[in-house]
## 1
Amino acid sequence: MLSAEKLTLSFGKTVALAGASATVHRGEVLALVGPSGSGKSTMLYCMAGLLDPDGGKVEFDGRILTKLNDDVRSDLRRREFGFVFQFAELVPELSLRENVSLPLELNGVSRREREARVDELLDRLGIAEQAGRRPAKVSGGQAQRAAVARAMAHRPRVLFADEPTGALDSQNGTLVLDALLDLAAVDETAVVLVTHDPEISARAHRVVQMRDGVATS
Ligand code: ADP
Ligand code: MG
């Protein structure tokens, strides 16, 4: 569904990607692993169309992402992709429920449809009981699960996650990974995640090892 072929990208003299390739299919969780500075985040951002590689191509669903103009690409990104980062980055003034609902509201989804979708997600992620609380009033794991729910709200075809469990203890990390695996299995979403944690990558469907900007599967 999404493939990156021979990506190269340098920041000044620093070579971040030196011909890295990776593919993820529908319903599959792909883990990018490797030492710090090996190019994992850069690879993820290029695959997500957030960064332009110097060379190589990214193909999504038969379209060459790297050739689309900015407007078309950001529109595609908004509709088809979801993002989760290391720190939940929820809106602090809003409850978990309101945070999850926000992208649907911004996309003009009706209140009835929004409420049904948000309830379903809060339930699937096991945070229904905390839904009325603000992010500061729940655990880091619960906030991160709300961030995953928010990223899933518009039913993206690909979800990108940069160290989504990096700030969590192993129990909460497992719960977040469970949510991502469930998303892949139930909604057939492709998931691309960056992780340092061997317990997380061991449960991914496909692992790509990054080293000095090169990827090996
Ligand atoms: P990882 O996520 O595996 O730790 P990154 O993809 O963040 O690695 O970085 C790969 C290399 O590119 C590193 O040497 C890093 O310092 C460099 N790099 C990444 N982003 C930038 C940037 N915006 N400006 C300059 N150098 C960068
Ligand atoms: Mg990184």
## 2
Amino acid sequence: STVFDVQRVRADFPLLARSVHGKPLIYFDNANTSQKPQTVIDAVDEHYRRHNANVSRAVHLLGEEATAAYENARDRLAGLVNAASRGEVVLTSGTTQSINLVAYSYALPRLRPGDAILTTVMEHHANIVPWQLVAARAGATVKAAPIDARGELIVEKYVEMLTPEVKLACVTHVSNVLGTVNPVRELARECRRRGIPLLVDGSQAVPHRPVDVQALGCDFYAFTGHKMLAPTGTGALWARREHLEAMPPFFGGGEMIREVKFSGTTFADPPHRFEAGTPNIAGFAGVGAAIDYYASLGFEAVHAWEQQLLAYATARLREVPGLRLFGEAKEKEPVISFLVEGAQATDLATLLDLEGVAVRSGHHCAHPLMQFYGVPATLRASLAFYNTLEEVDAFVTALLKVRRLLM
Ligand code: PMP
């Protein structure tokens, strides 16, 4: 048992105090987006009240302050994932933009007809569709490594599929549907042996566990701010310096150039080369506060409490008659997908909402994974460190009740 003071933590999140449909809110849709602590809300508010100006363009004090907040987010994100330097962190609007940047700026110029990109069956569409788009332009293909019935990647198959025509390998660190933690270190080692760069989708890992990109040994690590307490429209791409230096810009515009002439424009060094236009400055002011908040709790403490919640919720859900769990990997983050026999996922989610419980139902932007399991949708309860064992109990009670209504 842990000394994690969840009631004190909850008091830092104003939204958690509200009710929905006259019931106390139980927010179990954290894999979709997390709630924000007051300190993050204050940082955004403070930015607009006191510091609002554009970045990098003005010599006046407000411009300097806004630039400092924005560049501070880069430092903090670099520290968060243990980048070798701040210059390896490109600030983006989120994982989707980060992966598209790699697709268009790194993969596309390197892909030749007959080449392939390797991904997996358990990926979010953000780690499938960008690869399909650039592969189609280049006459290349996208291959998907299989998973087993427990929802674990079949590592030997993934490694077998790392053939010479594969120019880039991709994998999610943690599945947004199954919660499965993939063995990224091992995959990175196998990729490196074959000279194939590895991109990791860290969207669902960074909110839950300490991440060290150097220890993982991957080449690209994409993640999103809004799932880790920060405002929406913030995210990052970490990439090895040599990759960023070899990448042409993807978006063109202000802020990313050295000199513009109609006879030819030269570009800024990375990471600014990839940050055209005015970014989400207020959002990035919130990123610093979000990382401070995690640091104040301690990632190890967060992880330990979430693992307790996961174990408890999984055990309680197993008591529900006719419940089928998806994803029983040995190592998981607190994401639980399930179906209940005789009831539609959407009907259950709608009735749960009336009980105050926010869960997601649907395909979770993972059609291939739904096809693998032969279901159109699942229900997904995704937990965060500010959730409680009492909420899990109330959720299971509500699920039993709405199940009876639908039987
Ligand atoms: N990958 C995974 C595994 C995700 O869970 C998500 C968000 N649902 C994304 C990518 C996309 O992130 P964003 O919408 O923030 O770009």
